[in-house]
Structures are given as structure tokens and as C-alpha cells.
Amino acid sequence: MSWTDERVETLKRMWAEGQSASQIAKELGGVTRNAVIGKVHRLGLSNRVGGAGGKEEDEETPVAATPKAAEPPKPAAPAEPVAAAPVPPRPTPEPRVAAERPAAPAAPAAAAAPASGANVTPMPFRKAIVPAGQPLPPQPSANEISPEALASVREVEKRARKLTLMELTERTCKWPIGDPATEDFWFCGLPSQAGKPYCDAHVGVAFQPMSARRDRRR
DNA sequence: CCCTGATTCGC
DNA sequence: GCGAATCAGG
């Protein structure tokens, strides 16, 4: 396999989307992740911004540093985009998907099924069907989850790989997103932590230590 | 062990 | 230019 224009385009696109080298390699086929990484470097598009996969850190590494683009008129930039309002409505930044609804015979689906215009489902559905062996559709419901965790989840769900049931593996996050009764349903799919069924962000909201409620004595 | 990207270096 | 092997890390 050689790096045709088309393949390079795919590489650039996926890399920009934050896909990992191995995911890209898998998509392209015929190459290993090493090949992808090597190409990425040769293309000079090394460090990305939207860090996903593997080392995600909640810090905006000032990696920007484009050797040009000086910024004269910029007094201060103290704006903190993270951890603020509980649920700021966000227009889906990725205009992809959403345009593939078969012939849904009058689907009122008012409550759920936002996907194309509203923010993505904030919580997994109660009826969510989870792969055998992995029950527990988490219900943080009345629980109090830290704003950080929620923010993290929303962030992650925007970047979900949107896998189908069959695409899940031992190491992909199995957190359901959307309404299983509609087409707007998929699984997070991001790398899950060893042994756990969910990715870091979802583990954060899935396994609550029964926080607020003080445990009774025993 | 699973995974991530970064680098090296023979081809 | 390419990418396997290796390195460094979570």
C-alpha cells in the first residue's frame, strides 16, 4: 500500500479528528500504526489539539505555538471554558451524521432523539440494552455528580466513536448514548480502562461511591 | 497486558 | 519517503 492522495487525505482528516494512529491504520488498512505515525511526522502535522485516546489530560497544553502568527492585541485570556454552567446547551459542532434516518413512520420521539441540533443525550437511557455480561445501565439520576465529571462526559460524548453493538470489544467503552429505540443510538467506544466496561469519563459517572449520602454505621 | 505517540535508522 | 523496531509513557 502506498500513500495515495486519497489515503493521505483520510489520514489527515482522521488525525485532525483526534483519532489515534492505530484507529487510522485500521481504517486505512494495509498499514500499521507505526506507518501512520511515521507519515504523520513526515507530513509535519504532529501534535494535535483535541487530545483523545490514551492520554487525555484536562489541561490545555499551550502547544499551539505556530512559529508565526504573533498576537499583538490580546491583553489577557483568563477565560475558563471548563467547569462552569451545569448544562450549557451546545450546538453539535460536527455536522456529520444525522442525515441518515430511514423511513421513520411518524416518530414522535419528543423526549429523546435530539442528535441533530441539540446537545447529545446527557444521560444513558433507562431502557438501554447493554451487551450481555455488562448489565448495569448506569443511572446517576438523583445522584450528585461532580460538575467536572459531567463536563468531562459531555466532552467525551462529542468525541465518541459511535460504535455499534457489534463493534464493541473488551477494551471499548460500552456506555450507551442516545435512544436505543431510534437510529440515534450508539456506544461511546472510546478506550476503556483495563477491566472496566467504560472509558474514564464514563467510569466517573457510572461508579458513584454513594457520595452525598453518608453511610450508616455498621 | 492493554494502549498511546515519538524516534531511530536500514531500506 | 517509508515503516519496523524501539523507546517512553499511561
TrEMBL record:
Region called Disordered, residue ranges: 45-118
Biased composition (Low complexity): 100-115
Pfam family, one: GcrA
InterPro entries the record matches: GcrA (IPR011681)
Protein name: GcrA cell cycle regulator
